[in-house]
Amino acid sequence: MGTTQLESVPEPKYWHLRTVLSEALDSEFSVGEILPNERDLAARFGVARATLRQALEQLELEGRLQRRRGVGTTVAPPRVGVAVGTEQHAWPGAAGDVWQTADCDLAVPAASVADALESGRDEPVHVVHRSRVTHGQPVAAELLYIPQSSVPDLSGIDAPSGAARARAVLRELHRLELEGQDSAVELGSARADDAKALDRLPGAPVLVVTTRYLAAGRTAALSVATYRADTCRLTFGDSGGVEIHEDPQRRAS
After folding, report:
1. Who's near 231: CB < 8 A, 6+ residues apart?
2. Across all residues in the chain, what is the average pLDDT?
3. What sign results for the dihedral spanned by CA atoms 197, 198, 202, 207?
4. Nearest Cα residue to 251 out of 1, 81, 34, 17
5. What was the pLDDT predicted at 188?
6. Which residues lie below 8 Å from residue 214, measured CB to CB, with a gap of 6+?
7. Per-residue b/e over 199-221, b at no fewer than 16 CB within 10 Å?
8. What pTM was computed for the model?
9. If we measure between CA atoms, which residue out of 142, 122, 125 comes closest to residue 198?
10. Per residue in 88-128, pLDDT tens?
């Protein structure tokens, strides 16, 4: 990377530096290459390390960089398109579902989840843990909350815990007639558990997709799926098509 004069620019220094760094990533670095350490970069560009960190964090948010445990900051591969829209509404675990079921437990959810499910705040619900892998890398972790009233016949199933229990919960859920579903997406920060599952650092940017599954005029299940914001570009719509988003700055969404 060559040095660049950052004085007397009308935009914030970190944003101008982000532009300079982005151009350098395109011309001087390859995917997976490790960037110089913060001290060397700050000295080379004549900026404070706080300014450099702001620029690096912005590039990470845009998917240009990745921070990896024990490695450092590396150049990220192109974002992978992850379809979250399907041609027809379907229960989790239905045919063609791309999620991998991992575990299930009975727990009292957060108050916001209990309110969304219209269940008592002290009432335990089934919590199914699932993960999603795309192109060989973990891209999402999901918590699927299912009230006991949605699967009343589950007590007779001999599957006390683990993936078998999770699959049993989903099979019982499929007995209900799905009336519809709706989703919302927001930007968030990875919690410790999510960060571990997604091989990220705590606090890394993530996209949180919340989906309500409706049956019998109520919310029969609630999905909270956390996607890696640095590598994923979510695609919605009836086609459910997968797109590759190579450069968030130069290519229109």
Report:
1. 63, 66, 76, 77, 79, 80, 137, 139
2. 81
3. negative
4. 81
5. 84
6. 178, 179, 180, 181, 182, 220
7. ebeeebbbbbbbbbbbbeeebbb
8. 0.68
9. 142
10. 678 999 888 889 999 999 899 999 899 999 888 899 999 99
